[in-house]
Amino acid sequence: MEKVSSLVASIFGGSPEPAAVVSSIFIYPIKSCKGISVPQACITSTGFRWDRQWLVVNSKGRAYTQRVEPKLALVEVEIPSDAFSEDWEPTPNSYMVIRAPGMDTLKIPLCAECTIIEGVSVWEWSGSAFDEGVEASEWFSNYLGKPSRLVRFNTSSETRAVDPNYAQGHKTMFSDCFPFMLTSQGSLNALNEVLEEPVPINRFRPNILVDGCDPFSEDLWKAIKISKLKFEGVKLCSRCKVPTINQDNGIAGTEPTQTLMKFRSDNVLRPNCKQQGKVYFGQNLVCKESLSATGQEKLVKVGDPVYVLQAVSSCAEAAA
Questions:
Q1: Whole-number Cα distances in Å, 144 to 57, 123, 245, 281
Q2: Exposure string (b/e) for 69-102, b if CB count within 10 Å is 16 or more?
Q3: Which of 192, 239, 293, 303 has its CA 20 to 30 A from that of 256?
Q4: Which band of pLDDT confidence, cut at 50, 70 and 90, is reported for residue 289?
Q5: Residue 177's CB: how many other CB atoms inside 10 A?
Q6: pTM of the model as a whole
């Protein structure tokens, strides 16, 4: 049964005391490439601004991810620091800078006019996208050793809705399923206590890392407030192969998934639910105000308190 927030919480918009604090914010401009740690990020209708706005695709327009191209983990992406400020707009001298081992630096203009190409696809979605040009295509083709293109989500004409079974009316760009993923430092610490070799948080590629709460308490958060924004926990995050890929060298192993299966599988956490052989770490979120947030309300900052407005009592009651 869901725990209903107290009268005090309903009056003041959160618990009397915060459950956690935002300790890090990560943006991943190019899907499956390295993330950027930022002090603040702006909420847009599709998630944090700049997050998964670009995608590397093969000759048929199908997405490349670390699952099949782990070398993408070594691609470093840099965006002007001002780009994460409120109301910042790119100029003709604004670039996304891309680096990788053995490669020359690639610079992608942030406000150039691009050709639109059709037939770009990621998971269940397909549509048009902006092609970032021949130089970018050659760079990624040389790096991956196969025909590749770099494309940008066509926000002018395309929409990618999230699964309506979990969240109605929300949308994202090239993220896997949902616009935000949150996990906690406590959960990472608890995992590292039982691993032979500790892993960093970049294995799990969250957007929001919080600290100060009990391990895995974020599993139960059905509604939280960060700053003036309300986020809804819509689905436990089932993990794929990516957490087993060392983000510093692109080499895959068996951990931490092998250990997580012992205490974070659906068999353990949700024994009375349909078993799918999944392992969970983190919570997928949508933001209620993402379509209408204005002014300071659209910023999430490191140091923001996290208030739990509503929670379920066990993982078996959480959506997954």
A1: 11, 20, 17, 29
A2: bbbbbbbebbbbeebbeeeeebeeebbbebebee
A3: 303
A4: confident
A5: 17
A6: 0.93
